[in-house]
Amino acid sequence: MDMTNNKSIILAISTLLCLFSPIAGQSVVPAKQDGFWYGGNTAAAEKVLIEAFFDPVCPDSRDSWPPLKKALRHYGATVTLVLHTFPLP
């Protein structure tokens, strides 16, 4: 009976620790500017600002980079890109 009681207490404590421990698996978007301006262009009122969040090891981020560069070349001076390196889920 004593061993069963100890197991129940340990299980309850473990469950509470898991429920109330902070979860650090998901990152949040930073509050301050952390990206870099692609191509040296800065934002202006007459430009469209695109902010892209890329994970350096994500295959989807890798595959979306060439079409994004193509769009930047096509729209030229009317578009500005800010690129953020960000670990995606």
Automatic annotation (TrEMBL):
- Signal peptide limits: 1-25
Q: Which Gene3D superfamilies match?
A: Glutaredoxin (3.40.30.10)
- Look up keyword Transferase and say if it applies: no
Q: Which keywords are on file for this protein?
A: Signal
Domain of life of the organism in this record? Eukaryota
What CDD domains does the annotation carry? DsbA_family
Q: Which InterPro entries does this UniProt record tie to the protein?
A: Thioredoxin-like_sf
Q: What is this protein called?
A: Thioredoxin-like fold domain-containing protein
